[in-house]
Amino acid sequence: MKMSVTRRVLATVASAGLLLVAAPTLAPANAADACALGATCQGALAGSLGTSPVTIQMPAKFNGTVLMYSHGYRFSTPVPAAFAGPTALNLGANPAYTAIQVPAFAASFGSPVAYQANNNPEVAPNDAVAANLLSQGFALAGAGYANQGWAAAEGVQAGENLIRYINGGAIAGVKHIRAWGPSLGGLISQTLAERNPGKIQSVMPFCGAVAGPEQAFSTAMTVLYSWKSLIAPTLKVANYGSYAEALGDLGTVLKVLGGAATTPVTPVGYPLAQSNLLAGLMGGLPTKSSVYDGITVNPIIDVLAQNPAIGPGAAPGAASAQGYSPVTAGASSAVAMLQNVGTAAALGILGRFDLEQRARLIAQIPPTESANFSDNVNVSYTSLLSPEQRGEFGDTLNATTVMPNNLNAMLATLDSTKGNAAARFPANPKAIAAVRAIPAPKGTYGVPTMLMSTTYDPAVPAGNTGWLSDRLSASFKKGGSKGVYKVSAFYTVPPANGWTSFDPGGKAPSTPLSLAALGSSGVGHCVFTGEQIIGAVSTWSKITNATSTKQMKAANRGFWAVPGVNGDGGFQPDPLKRPNAKIQP
């Protein structure tokens, strides 16, 4: 497939090349350029923000519909191997990252090995899903991004260029283009659908960060400011002057989390597990992880309870004294939060560094000014802990002899600085404006939409999906409620009876056994089974083609029957925590 591009400058590249400008003129393809049936074609498309590699995979028999995929978030900077292993980000097993040498990392992180994101395109979540979709007759297309990080502008431009190229003849016989993608790719796909009416037939953002960057990083600010106040006072949190400062913050968080079992009290004097649990609850992070289900306690407690010398009432304490865990459901949730905060911190710190650098370039913010775009000066942290969370986790948050009345003491410490700009993190209005200029969905209803999320996602809370669903519904009603409303939101769920599993007599859960019992459903960021993804695409087609409310209901029922999909049509995830709801769009 010939993918050369001719360009003429239609407008200057605005704000250091990070905002979308008028698109370049693409040379129209002809029949000889079309990707052949059964072939995989690769090339590159140039735009004002840079060059994007492109992959197109064609089925043996084309059904006329192209599924255009936008991939998820990739870190813009090299990540030290110490942070990228299987127990952390697992970048070594990710084909989107390449191992490189950064000699400067050796002294601080014990190795010069780091992982740098590439800009390789993806056409589906994995090869097995791609093969299945090709067998159904779909053509698959995807573009890489000219830059990584919060590359929404680059991703939207790459998608728009790819649409033009496909429609120009790169794929013969095209009837429809549908946009889909996970995480940041979900944000990009939804934005493409909103900005290109008539060019995209329908959209499927799944586990998408669709509420935008301000929401994503306000969650991180809540968690990290709570950490700074209660756990690790040395954290910088925001306005990073260098990548080394950001790596230092992430290293501090991961080191503290790694030593949680042996260092139960923070330097500030609060219990670590409860402080971290509170931070995560206020940020809206889930209280279930891939190993800790927030339900199951160690079976040894039941054994000890049957011992007359110990008895039921003393069994939890006796088990805890011998190192058995978790001893209560609340303890299970607290340890789950230790895992989830590690995931959230990686994006909240490294992603913030990237976005602050983008804000500096877009708004031409000098080094002497802050590039922070998340204002927490007047946030009431007490109000971020809902009554439901207090009721469910109040006993756990107070279950410590370290600090009397621990929950109220922690909240008092957090809110003692309310209104104090010197103690908190005021945002630079120029940085806020720059971040708001980066493409993001508005929630405008225009095309059939299929939404899907795991219920317990530590990186992109499921409330993002609920937020977009609510926005689309309001937009549809504002538009006069004409025709069939074609939006469905689905949530995958883990086993209802829990999945934390133990080796016989084990003091702590077995990770392999717990993961096997979980079955990759409902927990984690963008973790879906192949059956769920393929079923989602099938349901997406039914939603797209529905001509009546009856057909929409039938499509929903069909997907609810897929294992691991929540069949409760009235389910709503926990709403997003919005500490700056009065000033955020």
Q: How many domains in all?
A: 3
- Count helical runs: 19
Strand order of the largest sheet: 1-2-7-3-8-9-10-11
Radius of gyration: 25 Å
Task: Tell me how many strands there are.
Answer: 11
The pLDDT mean sits at 91
Order of helical and strand elements: EEEEHEHEHEHEHEHHHHHHHHHHEHEHHH
Unreliable runs: 1-28
Give the proportion of residues in helices. Answer: 40-55%
Mind describing the biggest β-sheet? 8 strands, mixed
Strand content: 5-15%
> Separation of termini?
43 Å
- By helix and strand content, what is the structural category? alpha/beta
Shape: globular
Explain how this protein is built.
With 585 residues, this protein is α/β, with parallel strands linked by helices. It has three domains: 1-71 and 121-174, no CATH class; 181-212 and 440-571, no CATH class; 214-435, no CATH class. Helices cover 40% and strands 11% of the residues. The protein is built from 19 helices and eleven strands. The protein has helices at 81-84, 105-109, 127-135, 152-170, 184-195, 213-230, 243-258, 272-283, 300-305, 311-321, 329-363, 381-384, 387-398, 406-415, 429-437, 463-478, 511-518, 530-545, 549-560, and strands at residues 40-47, 50-57, 65-69, 79-80, 97-101, 113-117, 139-143, 176-182, 202-206, 449-454, 487-492. The strands form two sheets. An eight-stranded mixed sheet has the order 1-2-7-3-8-9-10-11, sandwiched between helices. Helix 7 (243-258) runs antiparallel to helix 11 (329-363), helix 8 packs across helix 11 (329-363) and helix 8 packs antiparallel against helix 13 (387-398). The longest helix has 35 residues, at 329-363. It is globular and about 75 Å long. The protein starts with 39 loop residues before the first strand and ends in a 25-residue tail after the last helix. The model is unreliable at 1-28 (pLDDT under 50).
